[in-house]
Amino acid sequence: MRKIILFFPAIAWLMAGAQTTLTERYPLIPWPSSLAAKSGDVVIDRHTHIVMEAGAGTFSYERSFLEGQLRRFLGPEASGKTKMTGTAIILKDDNTLTSPEAYRLTISGKTIVLAAHFPAGMFYAMQTLRQLMPPAIENGHGNRLHVPCVEIADQPAFPWRGMMLDVSRHFFSTAYLRKFIDMMALYKFNKLHLHLTDDQGWRIEIKKYPRLTSESGWRTLNDQDSACIKLAKQTDNPDFNLDPAHIRHIDGKTEYGGFYTQEEMKAIIRYAAARHIEIIPEIDMPGHMMAAILLYPELTCEGKKGDDWRHGFTTPICPCKESTLQFAKDIFTEIANLFPSKYIHIGGDEVGKTEWQKSPLCQQFMKDHHFTNTDQLQTWFNNYMEDFFHSIGKTLLGWDEIVEGGIDSAAAVMFWRTWAKKAPLKTTRNGNKLIMTPDGPFYFDAWPDRHSLSAVYHYNPLDPAYGMNANEEKNIIGVQANLWSERIPTEARADYLVMPRMTALAELGWTHKDLYDSYLQRLERQYDRLDRLNVHYRLPDLPELSERRVFIDTAMFFTHPPNPGLTIRYADNGFPTTASPVLDHPLRIDHSRELRLAAFTTAGRRGDVQTISFEHQNYAPALKVTGLARGVEVGVFRGEFDSTTAMHGHPDSSMLLSNVALPTNHPDAYGLQYRGYIEVPATGIYSFFLTSDDGSMLRIADRLVVANDGAHSSREKSGQIALRQGLHPLALDYIDLGGGGELQLSYSKDNEKPQPVPASWFFSAGSGEATGAAKQVRAHG
Ligand code: ACM
Known about the structure:
By secondary structure, the protein is α/β, with parallel strands linked by helices. It has 22 helices and 39 strands. The strands form nine sheets. Strands 14-8-7-19-18-17-16-15 form an eight-stranded parallel β-sheet. Strands 27, 28, 29, 30, 32, 33, 35 and 38 form an eight-stranded antiparallel β-sheet that branches. Strands 1-6-4-5-3-2 form a six-stranded mixed β-sheet. α4 packs parallel to α5 and α6 runs parallel beside α9 (262-274). Residues 349-350, 399, 416 line the site of acetamide. Acetamide (ACM) is lined by residues 349-350, 399, 416.
């Protein structure tokens, strides 16, 4: 194929598999809004010169960015006349490109033309050119760089393409902020939201209140730290150990922490701005304020240090005290002077308002303002602060709770509560700008699995389910992922959680077209680049395997690495290491055992560990049952169950469903017990794949097949069972704690492609007469 591409590229693209050819030749993420493939390459070498066309003077930083990159790889530019014989890279001001981030990139003949009217567009043209250069440009040296000819006209779908980093729960160095910004720039993100304060630490210097950082920037190790240390042991993963760079020993105590001085932050802001990334500061209030309240208890209504935050949300500051409002204004005055962004994030999430309810001061305040509930108090606080922000030239931004009691339409909102389904419409209908950051797909602190890339990529910020009209949709200005750092004590762990998910989000925010298969192919070609940039990304998944496998006599087990650069190693005891045997031939399985497998890079980095248990089984004999009805009986239990085993006694109601599916009408939080029979058409070893949000457990023939229990987001687990042809008892339990439910059951036999279990396989003892008539008899196996 490669040779054909070189000589007959236009023909090659017309052939079947054209998409592969395109993605190999142009492995761009995000994919441009328009790309016309062209044959041939252009060579960049020491004779290549950068030309600024008249009017392109505003691109001097962008020019130096490109120049720096080329010089690092190629060495000094050739001198004298010879350079005029080389390729010209032309930077051009094109005033027809009126959108601030738009650009054109034309690579043909002996020229590379980058055109934009605004510096951001020029910067993005350069990021595209960078991704068309070989990955070696990132850290290598050489004499020439080949770039494929192409004609690209590009601009983003959404103006807000953000990442949020929580630096409070665990702290990140300024060096890491720079690395993070670099990762963002490569994929055309433009907003870095820093969650600078929370209950667990205050991370930005405030000159008027220096103790906020000198004292509340540090803590003795807390429960989040101990949870991380425990995870490091449980998962054999050093990325969960606290970063020693953020630990100090002082007065005989071990403390964790760190903070940014205003000078350090100014340098970060400049670094980001040069890469067309705006930093949005968040000072979370009135809740999530323990770091300040511990020093200044008078900020609360009662003047006390507040509740133990583990028992719900922490005590908020008191909006009914003039001194508290002054404190907030002092803080935001310094923040507004420091950060040039239009938006300042006030947080506003998860405010526990019982203390406001109890406070005589707030009761009086509410009476004076004719408020009937404490949500209106938060609204009053937000509107007061929004007025103040306005007076200092800023716009308030907050989490979606700020719309609950109403909010001034000038404020902007981040939607995160996936379960608050009406919040997006309420926000946009009120005229507020809205950024989509849904918990679930865009909470990158959630542990990734083989489904997470697709979940990010396929989230639709303009989902018709939000019920907006076209005008309301216009208020959706973009997308953002959030990285909450309770369980992220190291930079390596942060890298692992964001990458490669960030690339899926980049394409959603910039391209917003469904090119998923092509995206996956292009992603494969990003890994070499990310390795060279020292990004500790999550390695590609091992091929999909049942975690619980059964065999009758013996079985052979083998699987290929997810890509040729990786090696799979396995261990019978403990976790695989670089010293463990390589899975390079099929393993004979003749006794029940557990294997742990993982992919390894040539540098020895380990991917996610997958545990597979092999269990010796005999075929479960089929039953002879008469008087059965089609469908499966489902018992519904009302209530919040955090495990399927928490459902006891008789269900509150029951119904007959034709298949394993969720009932259309159900309580907010509930549990289900599916009871009946499953009839398999042939004797064999069956794999079952059970996806659920929250937990589920599948038993067939009184054997546990899939264990997917507990409170969790959408997750697939699988298992196998050996079944004789015919009927077997089925018991499937499911729980939903609210916040979105899902239940899907697929099967495969003899390693065929999984497919949904058909309705024709399900039987129930029926109800009324049918129940009495059903008889269960052991059949001969
Ligand atoms: C949030 O996750 N509390 C915004």
